Amino acid sequence: MVDFPSKVTTETSSPQPQQGASRLRGLASSATSRMDESFLRSVPAALMAAETVLGLLHWALIAGAPYWHFPAYGWVMFVAVALWILTVLLFLVLLFSVPQRLSAVPWTMTVGEEAHFWALLRSGGTGTGTDTNLTRFWCRLQVMMYNGVAALLYLTAFLTNAATVRMFSASFHGHIGAAAFFGAALTLLYGAGAYVSYLDWRANGGDAATSTVPT
Prior knowledge:
Layout: H1 16-34, H2 37-40, H3 43-63, H4 72-95, H5 98-101, H6 113-123, H7 129-163, H8 173-211
Helix pairs in contact: 3-4, 3-8, 4-7, 6-7, 7-8
C-alpha cells in the first residue's frame, strides 16, 4: 500500500516582478497622459527645446576649459547656467500643466504667470471675462519680456565669449570658439522667442487689454 506524505508543500512564483513592471508602466502612462501635446506641437515649445539643448552645450564647453582664470567668465557662466535652469523649469511647468494641478498657488502673482495663461487657454478661459483678458494680456507681455531680457543677456555673454577666445591656450580654442558659436545661436533663439511672443501679444494681448478699459 502506498504511503502518502502527511504534508504537501506547493511553491508558486513570486508576482513581485510582474507587479513592479506594471507599476512602471502605470507611472509611464500617467506621466504621458499629463503631458500637454498641444504645447509640444507649438513654436514656443520647439524654441525652448532648442534653447535647452544648445544652452547645455554652451556652458558645458566653457566648464571644460580653465575659465576661472578670467573674471569675465564668471558673468558668462552665470548667464548660461541661470537661463538654462529657468528655461528647463518653465518648459516642464508648461509641459505638465502644473498650474492646473496646483490651483492653490496664486499663479497670476508669480513668475509662472505665462504657464497660468496656457492653462486658461486649454480650459477655455474659466475665469471672468475681465480677469481672463487681463491675465492673458500680462502673461503675453511677461513672456515677451523674459525672452527679450534673455536675448540681451546672452548677447553680452556671447560678445564676452567671442572676444576672449585668444586668451586661452591653443588647446582650448576649439572649446571656447564652439561655445561662442552656441552663444550666438542662443541669442538668436531667444530673440526669435521674443518676436513670436510680441506677435502673439500684438494679435491678441493688445485687444484683450483695450477691451478691459472702461469707456
